[in-house]
């Protein structure tokens, strides 16, 4: 039985459906039909602007973002989906928490829905640190259908690994 690393938190019945798609060679088709588009957010500068616009629309009162970047060393399995960091740095003798969002570089080459999902996920962490109910409500508020997109993004990561 294939271990589905990215989908381990989902019910066995759901995982079995994905295993069936894999066994029948239909996983790529599943993704291709639902997510045929690719986005054009290719640079860190573009990613910052994209993230800042989403923040301005939905989370105006959250702390300002210091940095947003693609990170090709990010371990998506270990870090769940992205990487949310509040880096503490001493500035002028004063300890200041820096808000930094790092997005795994593999999302450069993904559907726009998946990029939006991961950015919304990281933005929600500006307000809620844990993956609790309030966190997911915030994600759904910023991106209706969030849960389905997160699931499908995990299916996409599964497909990428199988292809490698
Ligand atoms: Zn998270």
Task: Give an overview of the whole structure.
The protein is an alpha+beta fold. The chain contains six helices and three strands, in the order H-H-H-E-E-E-H-H-H. The chain has helices at 12-23, 27-34, 44-58, 112-124, 133-142, 146-163, and strands at residues 67-71, 83-91, 94-104. The protein has a three-stranded mixed beta sheet. It is globular, with a radius of gyration of 17 Å. It starts with 11 loop residues before the first helix and ends with a helix. The protein binds zinc ion. The site of zinc ion has 5 residues, from loops.
Distinct bound molecules: zinc ion
Are there runs of 5+ residues with pLDDT below 50, and where?
none
Number of strands: 3
Strand sequence of the main sheet, in spatial order?
1-3-2
What is the typical, i.e. mean, pLDDT? Answer: 87
Instruction: Classify the helix fraction into a percent range.
Output: 40-55%
Our Rg estimate from Cα atoms comes to 17 Å
Query: How do the SSEs run, as a string of H and E?
Result: HHHEEEHHH
């Amino acid at each position: 039985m294939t271990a589905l690393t990215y989908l381990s938190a989902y019910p066995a019945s759901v995982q079995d459906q994905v295993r069936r798609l894999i066994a029948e060679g239909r996983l790529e088709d599943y993704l291709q039909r639902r997510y045929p588009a690719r986005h054009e957010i290719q640079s860190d500068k573009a990613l910052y602007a994209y993230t800042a616009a989403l923040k301005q629309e939905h989370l105006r009162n959250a702390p300002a973002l210091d940095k947003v970047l693609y990170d090709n060393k990010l371990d998506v399995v270990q870090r769940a989906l992205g990487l949310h960091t509040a880096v503490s740095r001493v500035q002028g003798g004063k300890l200041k928490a820096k808000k930094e969002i790092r997005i795994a570089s593999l999302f450069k080459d993904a559907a726009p829905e998946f990029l939006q999902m991961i950015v919304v996920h990281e933005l929600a962490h500006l307000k809620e640190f844990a993956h609790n109910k309030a966190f997911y409500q915030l994600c759904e508020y910023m991106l209706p259908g969030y849960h389905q997109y997160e699931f499908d993004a995990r299916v996409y990561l599964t497909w990428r690994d199988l292809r490698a």
